[in-house]
Every structure is written in C-alpha cells, then in structure tokens.
Design brief:
The structure holds 2 protein chains of 2 kinds. Chain A is mostly helical. Chain A has 10 helices and no strands. In chain B, helix 5 (about 90-125) packs parallel to helix 7 (about 155-185). The chains are: A mainly alpha, B mainly alpha.
Amino acid sequence: MSVTEISRPAAAPAATEAERTPPTVAMRTGGGLIAYVRKVWAITLKDLRAEFRAKEVVLTMAAFSILAVIVFGLAFDIRVPESAMVAPGVLWVTILFGGVLGLNRAFGAEADRGSLAALLLAPMDRSAIYFGKLVAGLIFMLIVDALVLPVILVIFDVNLFQPLNLLGILLGSLGYVAVGTLFAALTANTRARESMLPILLLPVMVPVFVAGVGLSAALVDGRTMDAVLRWLLVIGGYDLLFLTIAYLVFDMIWEEA
Amino acid sequence: MSTATAPQPTALKAHRGLHYTQLALAIAAVVAMAAMMWVALIYAKPAANLEGTEQFAQRIFYIHMGCNFAALSAFLVSLIASIGYLITRNLDWDRLVQASIEVGLVFGLGTTITGAIWAKPTWNTYWTWDPRLTTVTITVLIYIAYLLFRNGIDNRQTRARFGSIYALFAFLSLPLTYYSARWFRSIHPVVFGAENAEAEGGFGVGSTMVTTLEVAAFSFIVLFCSLLILRFRQLRLQDRLEEIREDLD
C-alpha cells in the first residue's frame, strides 16, 4: 500500500540516526549541547527526507502562495492606484495564509500515518522534537518565501529583495513557525484540526504581521533606519518570548501518551 | 460508586461556602450597579468643553471604562489561573480559566459596543483601526478561538491542559499586539492629527468625574467577581454531573 511506503522511509532515518550515536551516553536526555543539537537535526533530517520523498508540503504551500499573490494582484489592480501601497500587505498575508498549510502537516502528517507514537518514543527530550520540527518547518517556509518574492516583483513591480526586509522575513517566519509548530502539536489530535489551527494561530500572530507589514512598508517608502530597526526589534522580541515559552510548555503536550 | 460517594461531603461543603459568597456578591453587584448608574448619570457634572450629542455620549464613558476594567481583570485572572493549572493540575484552576474568559468576553464586547456608540457622535465613525480598538478586537477574537478550541477536545484533562497553554500564549501576545498597533499608527497618522486617540473627543476629567470613574470601576469589578463565581460553580457542577453520569453508565 502507498501509505506504508510513505511511512516506512519517514520513520527509518530517525531510527538509523539513533543507532549511529552511542546509545549509553549520547541518547540520554542529558548528553550536553552537541548531543541535543544532533537530536534536533535528526528530527529535521527525517522531516526533510519525508518531504523530499512525499512532496506534500512545500509544493502545496508554494502553489497556494503564488496563487494568492496572483489573486491579490488581480483584485487590487482594479482599485489601487499604486501597487507599492499594497505589496507589503500582500507579502505578509501570503506568508501567514500559506504557512498554515505547511504547519498543519507538521504533526497532522504524523497523526495520519500513525507515526506520532513512534516519534514520541524517540529517546530524547520532547523539546528536541519541537525544535527539529521547527527547523524543518522554517526551511519549508523560507523556500516558499523565496518563491513568493520574485512573483511579487513581477506582479506588483515592487522590489522586496532588500537585506533588512529579508532579515525581517527570516525573523518573522521564525516566530510564525515557533508558535505555529506548538499550536500544530496542540491541534493534531483535536476535531476539525485543519480549520482550528488558523483560528488559533492568526490572532496570536498579529504582532508579527503588523510589524512585518510595517517593516516592509518602511523599506518600500524609504523611511528612516530608526523605524525599520524598531520593527525588527518587535519581531525579534516576539521570537525570543514565544520560543522560550514554547520550549517550557512543549513537554506538557503529550502527557498521557 | 465508592469513588463517587467518597469526595462528596467535602465537595458539598466547599460548594455551600461558595454559595453564600455568591449570594453576597450578587446582592453587592446589584447595589453597586445601581450606584454606578446614579453617579454616572446624575452625580457626575457635565463635561466642560463638550456640546450637544457629544455631551450626552460622554456619559457612556463610565460604563465603557467599567467594562474595560472588568475585562482586563478577567483576562488577568485567566492568565494566573492557566499558570496555576499548568503547575498544580487541579481542574478547579481550569474551570477558573474558562469562567473568567467567558465573563471577560462579555465585558470585552461591552467595551467594544459602548466604545462604538460613543465614537459615532464624537469621531463621526463607529470604527477605526486605532491601537486600542485593534487590541480589543484581537483580544475578543483570541478568546473566542480559545472557547472553540476547548470544545474540540474530548478528554477532560487534555482540554484543560491545551486550553491553559493557549490561554497563556493568548495573553502574552496582547501587549505586543497593542504596542505594534500603536507604533504602526504613530508612523502613519491617518485618522487623528495627534498621536494619542484622546486628542479627538477628549474631555477634561473633573473631580466628580474621577469619583464617578472610581465608583464605576469598583462596581464593574464586583459584578465581574459575582459572575465569575456563578459561572465557576456552574462549570464545577457540570463536571460533577458528567462524573456521576459516567459512573451510572
């Protein structure tokens, strides 16, 4: 069956990764920072490999995001005099809505394939699973962002490839994936998972969204460095706050499992 | 059956204690709300610098601020209770989270509606994306999401835990929402000339107004406490009913 074909390679790399490291020292929940990073990376690699074979997340996200930009372009072409006015908003709305598709799969795919229990049995701190999923999700998001920016350039004729804007997108995506991965874990086993995640996620993401639009708009309008840095600081602060809290509470999610 | 009957006496005793508190608070709330209406409509002197409909409209300010204080207290209680639940895993904390969020939502909507009624004659629009209005809207949306999310989880313990985690995230994002919305506006002054929203339709707060505001804040917090305990007891009874029903099955 196709389902087992997908799930087997997805689960196998984590196991081989676990066997490769010395079991008595490195795979305990202690083991130092390097062991921890290696575990995080094992989870990330597993997700990347699963994605490379199944191709169900990035392609869907990219197709949706590009479609969204084109639909926005079509909608605003009629009424908005200058496309530079809406381009920052379009960028961040697209990131927000496209990202939900990928985040839904972060734990949804594990729950659907029945591999969630196996993942939780991995001999590592639960937070390593969280950070592994987070890094994989961030990579997916950044790939999609890299595809969306040229489309915005073509359709809206606004160049958003400015270093500070790229930094803002990186930090914004990080904050988004940080909160989104945790919420995806919360919603993975609830009813109406796919529609619940955006309802939970979007209102909490408002600071990143507002700051992101502010940042991109400030750069497009050529405002002072002061305003740009302030927005970067807001996004950075958000990332720091919620990464810490997510790290603290992630252990509590699967207590009875 | 034995598991159901054993905790009954203590639970009932705690219930009866809350029952009297509830009764006292309910009476206090009725008196306080009546007093609030009297000071807001009769005792407070008219605003010195306002005319016509704006003069009438400004009296809603006391109810508006009262609702605002009550909503703020409610969401603060929800934050404390959600942390309390995550530490102790006592379901009473979770009931407190749910009760305070439900009551807080009512006051949050009250703040929004009274604000919109006041804004129409004063700002000539019901709605604008002022930072406070943005924050209030997002707050209401977040806590509606919280209630929807709870409903989607069947296991009682999981529901409590996930709800508390979400309530924690929800509350902590709100200050950031407020400040980002404020900076967004201060960079793009569109609706108001000045940075501060009170620059349009603001009024001098005289000494009777300060007293009135204090009475209003106090009355609404008494009302909030009364509703909170009522809802808390209801949720507790609801869980108890579920337990008994499961025992009978």
